[in-house]
Description:
This protein is an all-alpha fold. Helices cover about 80% and strands about 0% of the residues.
Amino acid sequence: xxxxxxxxxxxxxxxxxxxxxxxxxxxxxxxxRLRERISAQTTRxxxxxxxxxxxxxxxxxxxxxxxxxxxxxxxxxxxxIPQEHVIPWVVVxxxxxxxxxxxxxxxxxxxxxxxxxxxxxxxxxxxxxxxxGWQHRRYCDAVFQQIPEALGLxxxxxxxxxxxxxxxxxxxxxxxxxxxxxxxxxxxxxxxxRSVDVALMRVYERTGLTEFAFLAVTLGLQSxxxxxxxxxxxxxxxxxxxxxxxxxxxxxxxxxxxxxxxLLIVLPFxxxxxxxxxQPFYVSAFTENPTGQKLLMAGLGLMALGVVTIRWLxxxxxxx
Length: 320
């Protein structure tokens, strides 16, 4: 491969990595300041009842610039939830660059330098999306599993005679992360002037869990119409508990599909290994012949596409 071809592959990769890194760095610094402000509030501070007499505070919503927002959406990076990033974003970008460079060099050998650039960019993008998306799904699933317990704590606290703010604060004291972190942010939003339904809707916007939307609508309607808050939350907790149980059942049923998908993935490699002992000529045709190498790369690419499609179908079936 010539120097021009190497430059055509590496230059777009470095430019894309620098752009994504700059956008993520801006979001990370902004969320670090936000996390420091929120952590200093609510858990040991005064109750919301003592703040009720203060003048109302109008909170200005800071929007991310459209370009940075598009980059975050493409990468599936959520700067509003810094605690979900168990893998540092620098590691994700480095892994994406390594995969993109490898894919670009292999594509340049097989298809030429011009086609190698989009192949490298697509490979790096898919790796970054997969790693960021896995972290977000992992975080949201952990929150989803703890929602029934959080609602149960709120019901018991309200039946004991505590106000809603203290019931929310009991969740931050009793439950583990990540639900504790989300409810701490809810209390922080309430402290600076947002209503409880708006604060819970912000949790729904961050996580995409409809249970928080149910809770926000329930508390908003109850504050306007009145009634027994404990009974209302108890009914909602029962509904959410059934939804969580149904989701676990769907995951168990999806296990059979995952096993079948795993067999379909492993079977070609087992067949190739067995054939290498019985008829080595057939395997060497794919490893030593240039045409066979192109066919092998095309087959591996189609297999990777099939794996991604199967995982997407299984995940969508579980969500439905």
